[in-house]
Design brief:
The chain is α+β, with helices and mostly antiparallel strands. The protein folds into 3 domains: 3-118, no CATH class; 243-338; 343-482, Apoptosis, Tumor Necrosis Factor Receptor Associated Protein 2, Chain A, CATH 2.60.210. The protein contains 11 helices and 24 strands. The strands form 9 sheets. Strands 17, 18, 19, 20 and 23 form a 5-stranded antiparallel β-sheet that branches. Strands 16-24-21-22 form a 4-stranded antiparallel β-sheet, with no helix packed on it. It has a 3-stranded antiparallel β-sheet with strand order 1-2-3, with helices on one face. The relative contact order is 0.05.
C-alpha cells in the first residue's frame, strides 16, 4: 500500500511501496537532480541498479541510484530538481507487469496504489504458506483475489459442517470429518438396504445401535443359548434357524425347566429345614426370656419398696434444708446490717484481643460480687473500646436496698511499667440515675442495662506492646457502693 512519510525538512510528498522482501522502494521529487530536468522520461524515476522506484536519489558513477544501492562507505548528498516538472510527468502503474493498465501523472500514483487491485496484501485471516520460500509466513495475494481466496481456499475461513452444522476452520474440516458423530459411515458388515446398491450408511454415533438391533448381517447368538443351543448366525438367518430347530429348542427348554424345578425343590427343602431349626431356637429363647421377665418383676417390686423409703428420706432432708436456709437468711441479714458502703473488684484477663476487635463482638466478664450485689463487666468493640458495668440478678436481691448508686474505677495494666497504668474513674450521678432508673433498680431479667465509659481506649492504643501482651490485656474493675440519694 502506498503511504506518505514526512522527511527531515517537514515535507510529506514521499511515496513508497513495501516490496515482498520487506524493503521499501519509492521516490521523493524534491531529491531528484536539477540537471536531469531536460531528460524527464519514465525511466528516470527508477534506480539504475535495482530498477525500483526512487526513494533517496543521487548521481553515482554517472547513473541515477537510490540510497539503498549506493555503497555504505560512499559519502553522497541528495540534490534537488523542480518538483512540478516531476509531478506532472506521466507514469504507468508500478504493477503494470502484473496486468494493471493504469497510467497518469506522477503526483497521483500514491492514490492509485491505495485502490490498485494488483497490489499485494496479506490475507486478513492470517493463513500462512505451507511451502515455497515464504513457508510459515502469512500468505500474500493481489487485492483482487482476496475475496475469492477467503471464500474458496483460505485455510482459516470458517465452514459449516453439513452433517453436524458446527462451525469449523477450513484447515480443520478433514480432521473433523474423521470424528464427526453425524458423519455417515458404511455399516462394518456392509449390509445393504433392499432395492439399493452399496453398503448401508448410518451416522457414526449410531453404529453400535445399528449393529446391536438392526444390522441383518451382524453375528448374533441363538435366543436359546441359555438353554444350551450354541449356534451363532447372521440376524437375517435367525427366523429360519428357529423354525428348523424348533423341536431341539423345545427339548432344551424342557430339560432346563426340569433341572431348575429340581434345584428349586432342593432350595425350598433347605429353607424349610432351616426355618424349622430357627423356630425351635426362637421357642427356646422365648422360654429363657420369660424366666428373665419373672425375675425382673420380682426385683422391680423390691426396688419400688426401696424407692419409697428413699423418697421419705428425701422429704425429711428437704425440710431440714428449708430450715437451714431460713437460718442462713437471718445470718445474711445480720451481716448486711453491719456492712456499710462495701467495695469489690474484678481482675479481668482478656485473651484473643485482636480477633475480638476484628469481629466487633460484645464480650462479658465472669460475674463478681460487691457486698451482696452481683455485677458483671462488658466491653463493646468499635473504633474505641467501651467498658460498662451491668447489675446482675443475684440470690440476695430480695434482702437488698434498691435502686443503688456506685462509683467505678477502670485500670488497664501496663505490662512494661506497672506504675504507668491507664486509669479512669466515674460515678452514677443523681441526674443520670433519674433519666435511666431501669439500670439501677432490682433486676428482673438476667442483667440490667449497662452504665460505663463509651470510649475508654482506642483499638490502636490497646494493641500497643505496653498494654497488649501475648494477644491479651488485663483490665481491673473496682466498684464502690455509694449511699442512696
Amino acid at each position: 500500500m502506498a503511504e506518505k512519510l514526512t522527511d527531515s525538512e517537514g515535507r510529506n510528498d514521499l511515496v513508497y511501496i513495501k516490496t515482498e522482501d520487506g524493503s521499501y522502494r519509492g521516490w521523493r521529487v524534491d531529491l531528484l537532480v536539477d540537471n536531469l530536468s531536460n531528460k524527464m522520461e519514465e525511466k528516470i524515476l527508477l534506480c539504475s541498479s535495482c530498477q525500483g522506484m526512487l526513494r533517496d536519489a543521487c548521481i553515482y558513477e554517472g547513473d541515477l541510484k537510490c540510497g539503498v544501492c549506493v555503497p555504505e562507505d560512499v559519502a553522497w548528498q541528495p540534490v534537488k530538481m523542480n518538483r512540478e516538472i516531476v509531478s506532472d510527468k506521466m507514469i504507468s502503474c508500478p504493477l503494470r507487469k502484473r496486468g494493471c493498465e493504469w497510467s497518469d501523472r506522477v503526483s497521483t500514483v500514491m492514490y492509485h496504489l491505495e485502490e490498485c487491485e494488483f497490489f499485494p496484501v496479506l490475507c486478513p485471516l492470517g493463513c500462512v504458506c505451507l511451502d515455497g520460500e515464504r513457508k510459515g509466513e502469512v500468505m500474500k495475494l493481489e487485492k483482487r483475489r482476496i475475496a475469492e481466496h477467503q471464500r474458496d481456499s483460505c485455510r482459516l475461513r470458517e465452514l459449516v459442517c453439513e452433517f453436524c452444522m458446527n462451525t469449523v476452520k477450513g484447515c480443520e474440516m478433514n480432521p473433523h470429518l474423521e470424528v464427526c458423530e453425524h458423519f455417515p459411515v458404511p455399516c462394518p458388515n456392509e449390509c445393504v438396504i433392499e432395492g439399493e446398491e452399496g453398503a448401508r450408511h448410518v451416522k457414526r454415533r449410531d453404529v453400535p445401535v445399528h449393529l446391536s438391533n438392526e444390522c441383518p448381517q451382524q453375528k448374533v447368538e441363538c435366543p436359546y443359548w441359555i438353554y444350551g443351543c450354541r449356534e451363532e448366525m447372521e440376524r437375517k438367518e435367525m427366523d429360519l434357524h428357529e423354525r428348523e430347530f424348533m423341536h431341539i429348542h423345545y427339548r432344551l427348554s424342557m430339560t432346563d425347566m426340569k433341572q431348575k424345578h429340581i434345584q428349586t425343590s432342593k432350595l425350598l427343602q433347605y429353607k424349610l429345614d432351616t426355618a424349622t431349626e430357627r423356630i425351635a431356637f426362637v421357642e427356646n429363647e422365648n422360654e429363657s426370656k420369660r424366666k428373665e421377665l419373672l425375675t425382673f418383676k420380682h426385683n422391680q417390686i423390691e426396688t419400688n419398696v426401696k424407692l419409697d423409703r428413699a423418697n421419705t428420706k428425701i422429704k425429711n432432708l428437704e425440710k431440714q434444708i428449708t430450715k437451714k436456709d431460713s437460718e442462713l437468711k437471718l445470718i445474711i441479714e445480720v451481716l448486711y446490717s453491719h456492712t456499710s458502703l462495701p467495695t469489690g473488684q474484678l481482675e479481668w484477663k482478656i485473651q484473643g484481643v485482636k480477633q475480638m476487635i476484628h469481629d466487633k463482638e460484645d464480650i462479658y466478664s465472669d460475674p463478681f460480687y460487691v457486698g451482696l450485689y452481683k455485677f458483671q463487666g462488658c466491653i463493646e468493640w468499635n473504633h474505641f473500646a467501651g467498658v460498662h458495668i451491668c447489675i446482675m440478678k443475684g440470690g440476695y436481691d430480695d434482702k437488698l436496698h434498691w435502686p443503688i448508686r456506685y462509683k467505678y474505677t477502670l485500670i488497664l495494666f501496663n505490662h512494661i511499667n506497672s506504675s504507668n497504668n491507664y486509669e479512669i474513674t466515674n460515678q452514677v450521678t443523681k441526674r443520670y440515675m433519674e433519666q435511666h432508673s431501669s439500670i439501677f433498680k432490682r433486676p428482673t431479667e438476667l442483667r440490667n442495662g449497662h452504665f460505663g465509659t463509651g470510649s475508654f481506649f482506642s483499638n490502636t492504643e490497646i494493641l500497643e506492646a505496653k498494654y497488649c501482651k501475648g494477644n491479651s490485656i488485663t483490665l481491673l474493675i473496682k466498684i464502690e457502693l455509694l449511699p442512696a440519694l
